[in-house]
Amino acid sequence: MPSFRPPLDLTLHREPLLAILRAVIDTPQLSRADLNHLLRQHLKETPDGRRFFAKDELIAAYRAFAETGDLPPFEPAVLERLRLKPMRTTSGVTVITVLTKPFPCPGECIFCPNDVRMPKSYLRDEPGAQRAELNAFDPYLQTYTRLRALHNMGHPTDKIELIVLGGTWSFYPESYQIWFIKRLFDALHDFGRAIDRTAEVRALLEAETLAQFKPHPATTAPAETVDGADFSRTYNQVVAHLYEAELRRSRQQADQVGAGLLPRTLITEYATWSELEAAHRENETAPCRCVGLVIETRPDHISAAEVLRIRRLGCTKVQIGFQSLDDAILRLNKRGHTVAATRRAVRLLRQAGFKIHAHWMPNLYGATPTSDKEDYQQLFNDPDFCPDELKIYPCSLIESAELMGKYRSGEWQPYSTETLTDLLADCLRATPEYCRLTRIIRDIPSTDIVVGNKITNLRELVEARLAANGERSRDIRAREVRGRQIAPEALHLDELAYTTSNGREIFLQFITEGRQIAGFLRLSLPERSIPPLIETLHGSAIIREVHVYGQALGIGEEAAGKAQHSGLGTRLIERAAEIARAGGYARLAVISAVGTRGYYRGRGFRDADLYQVRDLHL
User: Which domain holds residue 500?
Assistant: First the structure.
């Protein structure tokens, strides 16, 4: 959560700050213990006594004193020693997650929480949800305040992956979607130019109740407590009742603005496609660039038209809830779609080059550890699935979920920790090298969980169990080089081929002898018998993702021994071009993010409709 501590008076604390920072500059191998020792030696004098300097205060002081000449010129390596929570950017980019506003959802899943203060499936106590509510779900405020917090913690803010969560994205009105995405880009651009409109936006939000989304205190979700839960009204019915006037007014206001009848404000939920495309063009060379844009939706809301529409928004990855690959389990849990819908959705998304980030849930109502193990193996043994990334969310009981009734009647019980750990160990064993397991549990506060897993470091326990047997996970996340120093000559190119519903995939990865991964590329080689969704992709192999790991560096920065900016991306692209040319493809297309278009132009790609392409000259 954001800190409301007032800015530090650098003049008042000049001497102890300079003493700490000079020592940090002079100690390239500074450890956490070394820094703590320095902080104990040079304390901050306050009216309430002597205190440690906070790391964000040290970072602000370092930037200021390096600019004034009191310290040597700014060096990213020094900032890295001071950085708070360095793991946030060791995957190569800086991630910002935002939530959409509460809105009706097409699903009726019995495991889903029903907190009407939040978009469907989210809880108010989750960290990202708290930040969203604090900013009234406004896309500009959520993005700008997160950028500022990350900057204050010492993280680079020039290469941003934007993740948009909340209910089913495809169910929100198109006008809201265009406006929401444009305002994300507005925040990137303003932050990069040191323009801060947050006070103006907050003032407008205070004046416009339609954007606050704060239900009357007497009205609660269908079930707010364990006792006396009332499921007579669905989430959609409650949300529609609470926000009906606000939602109607919002739509009418957007229509009137579009017709030129009302002036637009910074919170009016209206923008045109041409305005969004202009924001895209500006972002290509902006100080804060979007290098990935992610939305989440349901399989039954994916169509060919929808795939191209979200691509037009600038999206490069889709989070999609598989939950189970068993129709009987889906039906018991009122998921509202079949496995066939999931197959079709994955096929369309892969055909369009999207990265596919699946969600899968063990311990659903009707499942068993044995059926879950078989289900997980199908994720990667069946060519119709093979997700690129995966979140494993063991089902936990939230008091506002309809599953509460099944628990009370004894029809559903959570797996024991031992059973769940065994199951997850099997899952990690079955995960191929081309998949990244981004999460093993969902970040739900234990106070919100009635029964189910409450262990926050469950992944660590599962990996320890594998290690005890001389095993380890092969997924990408477990193999990332992160902040390690890697000599280029210590890497070799490895290629893994597998079959999908669209053709063949080649996973190219630069790895060490121990198979630690420094960078990878996902290359799709579509079957020529399958018509492309768009003419741009006719006769094209598709680069679906290029990613180089290690601590995120600023655009143009270099660091000795770091994977980022060491030419691995270019080498991967050139090898992909060789493979595509040998396979008889006339062109190589890439589903580039808005902020990476310039990068690909520099590697022989030209702009085309929704994609960038490079002729292979067979």
Answer: 480-615
